[in-house]
Amino acid sequence: MEDVARAAKVSMSTVSHVLNGTRKVSPDTVRAVKDAMQKIGYLPNTLARALAGSASSTIGVAISGLTNHYFSETVRAIETECAKHGLMMFFADTHDDPQHELNVVQALHQRRVDGILLAPTADPELRTLEYLHANKIPAVLVDRFMSCEFDQVGVENKLSSMELVSHLIEHGHRRIGLISGTAGLSTTDERIEGYRAALANAGLRFDEALVRCGESSTEPARVATCDLLALHSPPTAIMAANNLMTIGAMHALRDRHIEVPTQMALVGFDDFDWADYFSPRLTVMAQPLEDLGARAVALLMRRIKNPDENQEIVRLAPTCRIRNSCGCS
Fold this sequence. Notes:
Layout: H1 2-8, H2 12-20, H3 27-40, H4 46-52, E1 58-63, H5 69-84, E2 88-93, H6 98-110, E3 115-118, H7 127-134, E4 139-142, E5 151-155, H8 158-170, E6 176-180, H9 186-201, E7 211-213, H10 218-229, E8 237-240, H11 243-255, E9 265-269, E10 283-286, H12 289-305, E11 313-316, E12 319-321
Parallel strand pairs: 1-2, 1-3, 3-4, 4-5, 5-11, 6-7, 6-8, 8-9, 9-10
Antiparallel strand pairs: 10-12
Helix pairs in contact: 1-3, 5-12, 6-7, 8-9, 10-11
């Protein structure tokens, strides 16, 4: 910085203000400093600045299942929003494993990130959340809500699941199967609640045999769908609680030569690029991923800047995209 100041014929404090944006500097001076930086090949050392100060302009993102289109698009939306604010993003896949989740969050902390966005795993011991709290690390929970004192952002699951199931009921279906997600996650519990509420509103009895766990993955969902089809009185319609499980259900129905929607209606949670190009075109509940990423980053920046602010919980409304797998023409 001394060399830059000498070359630009300004003080070191002026160079600091240009680099950090801590005070208004005239455009001519900014240009002189940047020209001097380029001439002598000076690059700010981000790690050194983080060690000397309190901010590294980096955030950590710990999310499971990057192979899932939903989470990969969420990470993309987060990265896009980070770029708008000059933030670098470190990504780590938790693989939905509680111990690995704790390990990657500790690694992100050791790399002095300013804060962490986390899609928490189903850990009964809440080890990662306790670590974040004990170390006073600014954090925002994404997608999966927890009953804890963290900022959180995700979609409204119960009412949107009610809407999907109610749509099937309007088509005359009375036995509706549900392929539910991984046990212990708020998204799973809330979507089951919505399924049950829609049945209750229509005066239909809840039948436990019609709910099978698809573990939020394709192959378990295929097996779960086969179990539903093997029932003495199988369902006439199925709701799959995420995109991978919708694909698994489609595989099972195709293997059994069951046509959708003429022989089985199908709806799913999560939209994806090719859902509108399947035959039939899939009716799904689409989550607002760009808004989700933007709100997550905004909440984290707020928490970093104001660590004592009250907790904020944001629930975004998804959009029901009616196509024809549900029976609509």
